[in-house]
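Input.
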Amino acid sequence: MNLRSICAAITLAMMIFAGAARADENAPVDQQLALLKSEDAKARFEARNELLRMHEQMVAGLLAMIDSQKDDPNPSKEELHRRINSSKRIAIDMLGRMKLTAAIATLSRVIDYEVEPLDGNEWERRYPAMRALIEIGHPATEYLVQQIGSDVRPSELRIADAPSHPDMRLELCVKALIDIEGHDKTAALLDDRVNQTIHQGLVHEAYVKARAIADSNLLGQPDASSNQANH
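Output.
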């Protein structure tokens, strides 16, 4: 057997091994799905519980992955590039694709987590948590509206959670609201909060500012590094 044949055989063996490994990884899920078709009612019920447990464990792991990683509030361009394939960015993307309402609070907290997109410069590419919230859609609306007022009250948050760039966060919340609800409904929601918070100082000012942003030209494409522009 010549060298080329040996290499081909090794490559084939590696492919088969990788395929088998993937099959093994999927086996628990496949087994539980098969049990859902069982004629045994108890087996179906237990399979249902196991699949729910797997799902809850995965979601809890993704949320913990986001919360446990503390990021530099003044990231370099190299750091923004590194983040595009980071575990945190991937976890954010997965939660958005699954449209998990349980993730709304966590995603709102990291709405200004910024990455350097591989191509394009759209808001959704640069701010993956904002994109995830838009994918979740209407269930995120009320939380985003509340977030606008919450960001100006860091004394009610843990110090680590106090926003570094409240104006950018406010702008991102407004942009997400407009993408989810459209301009007119967003304007109406913010008008209601402006009226409701008229005696609440900084909270009222935040909603007034958000209402102005909704009608301004600030919602174009972000700069090369929008957060850095605020530093």
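Confidence is low (pLDDT under 50) at residues 5-24, 153-164, 224-231.
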